[in-house]
Queue: 2 jobs
Job 1
Amino acid sequence: MDLQFKRHRRLRSSANMRALVRENHLRAEDFIYPLFIYEGENIRNEVPSMLGVFQVSMDHLQAEMEEIVAHGIKSVLLFGIPAEKDECGTQAYHHHGIVQEATRFIKEKFPEIIVVADTCLCEYTSHGHCGVISGEKILNDESLDLLVQTAVSQAEAGADIIAPSNMMDGFVAAIRAGLDKAGFLDVPIMSYAVKYASAFYGPFREAAEGAPKFGDRKTYQMDPANRLEAFREAESDVAEGADFLIVKPGMPYLDIVRDIKNNFNVPVVVYNVSGEYSMIKAAAQNGWIDEKQTVLELLTGMKRAGADLIITYHAKDAIRWLNENQ
Ligand code: PBG
């Protein structure tokens, strides 16, 4: 036979051979696990559309954190569901706000865990938008002040990283200046720089009780059809002082993750959002897919696309499965 062709299968011949040439790997340190802290007592509600994800009140946080630490998770991302909401989202920047209290608790009891605080108003405003409003308009500059207050109060509570997700223009510049002025020069900003107006956030809005009461978020979150806009958003955030760039959602936007990874020199974070999680869970529950294999493939695909870090509700399971495989 004088056929000319390459024998790619040589490097796939056994599990050890495949491991030898594997290009991308998942590690426990790659994952950031979102937590929903509910103001109140004795609350541990499973989110119906997000099986395995719970809203927990402070009195359940110790147990939840022990489980998280036992799994080997190193970083958590905190969302709060306040007992009271108002027009201006006062509980977002209150000294005793739910995220501030949870941050203090975690940093006292589990000091080595990295606390990332989500900085947004939508869970705290009565109208459910990420900024303040006038009529049905979401006001940009007026919202910045409140977001700065939120970030500073989170840093005061001990947050290791501030993660603003509100998509107002100038939020990185404003928050950086506010943190510096308050003395938090060393607290980094993980910016949700590239955040699309996505239907995949549906289950999260149930979990965080933060759905907008009117309209949608399309005047501040990005159009899913756009790629160059992602460059503009990332450029301005880096120029304003972002230390990390988040691309969100993950699965339908891995091309954008690769673009951002290739063009910027800060760590790239992908947010594997609630709707992506719910789809996998639902299909797995029906026995239509193998959950373990699917999740590990999905998360590996995100790293291959260029993600340095992954925010994911699958973190506990993924780390458990990775340990089993070793
Ligand atoms: C709040 C926020 C949202 C998510 C993270 N922060 C929802 C939204 O913008 O409507 C979504 C996360 C997920 O779906 O898992 N601004």
Job 2
Amino acid sequence: MKKKEDKSQNTSQGDKTPSSRHFSSNLGEYDADKRHLISNHKLDDIRYYHNHSHTQLLTTGQGLPITDDMNSLKIGSRGPTLLQDFQLQEKLAHFNRERIPERVVHARGTGAHGVFRVYRSLASYTTAAFLQDPEIETPVFVRFSTVQGFRGSPDTVRDIRGFATKFYTREGNYDLVGNNTPVFFIQDAIKFPDFVHAVKPEPHTEMPQGQSAHDSFWDFVSLQPETLHNVMWAMSDRGIPRSYRMMEGFGIHTFKFVNATGKVTFVRFHWKPMYGKRSLLWDESQELTGRDPDYHRRDLIEAIDAGDFPEYELGVQLIAEDELNKLSFDILDPTKLIPESLIPVELIGKMTLNRNPDNVFAETEQVAFSPANIVPGIDFSDDPLLQGRIFAYSDANRYRLGGANFNEIPINRPLFHPHNNQRDGQHRMQINIDHANYSPNSIEDNYPRECSTSNHGFVSIREPISGIKVRERSESFSNYYSQPRLFWNSQSLVEQEHIISAFSFELAKVTRPYIRERIVDLLSNIDTRLAGEVANQLGITLSAEQLSRPAPMMFDGIISDPALSLFSTPCLKGLKTLRVAVPIFPHVSSVSVTEILAELKKEGIYPKLLSSKMGIITSIEGDAIEIDGTFEGNPSLFFDAVIVPNGEYAKFQLPVSSDFVRFIHQTWRHLKPIAFHGEASEILNSVNLNTKQKDHGIIAVKNSHVLMVQFFATLRNYRIWDRNPLNCIH
Ligand code: HDE
């Protein structure tokens, strides 16, 4: 450990000798055959701090064994409590300090551990160690979040989702702190506090929670048209994802890759979910806020626990320096995306989330992300929003986590011990044993020494910068309508209907008419049909001038891009992890139940046997079938489809209870497949669905094999869009 034997010729700054103990010795140790151990190393590192109390006796924080944790120290069993009861005081005082400030945005989040592996070496673009070798597995921690609501707010509200990833690389932590949209609301960091004030609950009422449907948000939007592009995404089905496992992620800003020769390639990052992209319906998402406020976090935790690990491919859009002038928009503008039809996304690696946190506070709450955490081979662009973020996150982390030593919290510690002359401060964990805590020093042979670039030391790109100091926005950032129109044009008709409904819903909650009017006026710069339909819903009459506004110029000849739609390309990659309800009634056939369950399980679907009450139902064959849950406790919102097994129903009075009828009606309303095996179709007649539309996703078949084939084919389409009778389920 002590490095006196390293004492080299060089007592000045820099590591002319390549010894650089801390870094290369670590690399050496884990290089070659033991590479895979790196991920275990991080795990062990975190595990070291685990405190398993299940076989231990109770102590105070000082380690004093406790004999009675039920009663405080009193004068007589009915007398006053004594000030000298240090045991009581310690417990209450610690309890008072259990909460830390929640994140000012993205307070509501859920995390998962995992690993990342690159598919092939990216050495021609970047020296980043974790992007070099498919043999190397890099541990990661991901935190998904909503933006607006407080820490206890529901998961399924309409909002942007955060998608923040910490890669524990051999060259330090690399944080990709992105969202589920490829653009942001504002162009310059100086507007961030204003934007967040506007979207958060209003100051005089602290309402509404988890919603942008209120005056101050739309007031800001109406006065700041650069927000419109991200607002279009938020009002689309992207704002209500079905699952974090089925959601794209984007780094938004342009970053720079730098290779060993110093060559720069501009890059935008994408996460593509391997479970496909899917969203909720607005009606579903609203009902879920009450029925299961933890819907997304539960979905993630259960899938990981079941071993169905969420997977995402990392994609990059690469732009050579000399290609920049081919683009007709500014890649430094974070309100603009680079259409995939212009620059395709290259898939470069895969992330697998394979372990739930053991303790939400210690890991998910204390994890500290920052876009400033970059590694050699990656650098910032001059995007003015990104530049502000470089400061904001570390500053927020120091405040939120109680000081400058938040990097020492296990979840934030890099893979290998950091070495520097930073010392002391609140909550210092390391016990630095060196006698010199400054540089240059000769007492410790000038260790820890700087690292040369040839030895993977980080160096900011050398580039000439000249200009006049100004406080102004670049002209190249000024087109606010072309890309919102590109997004609008790229949506399927159903998605466009959803966008119209979302704008109408939100704006109808805005109490000040002039704000509503300003928004529809802005929308008419994007698309007159969009503006017209929203205006109609709001009782606003657009002027002839508004209705005849010319469409904005489109960039680079691209009118629409299928990558921007959730549904124009097949959204489902498979049926694995979808949830199917299997209602069970008296006189059910256990043969049918067994066949159905076996087929569902073959596809990796999660089935649940439901009935009106818990307990056992005896099948016509005399088998006992144990019920997993009730219709009341498991509304159809929790499922992707329903399939009713066969039974001898025709002979008996049909056992159709009101909770089951409600269940089927809700499944119908939310455009999900409903299947009946054999005689179960008798039940269909008693639930009074809109009979004219019966065949839209209603499958009633006698033969179980045919039934399942048809059921799976329907489920693959996910929603039965043409069922929507009144066009009212968004
Ligand atoms: Fe954030 N953002 N942000 N943001 N952001 C925070 O960090 C900020 C921006 C994003 O799960 C805060 O520790 C500024 C863009 C995510 O822990 C804060 C600006 C993108 C998360 C902060 C932006 C994001 C945050 C809240 C404009 C997508 C949650 C407390 C200059 C690329 C990370 C904290 C997690 C969190 C500031 C803009 C994504 C206040 C100043 C653009 C996913 O520091």
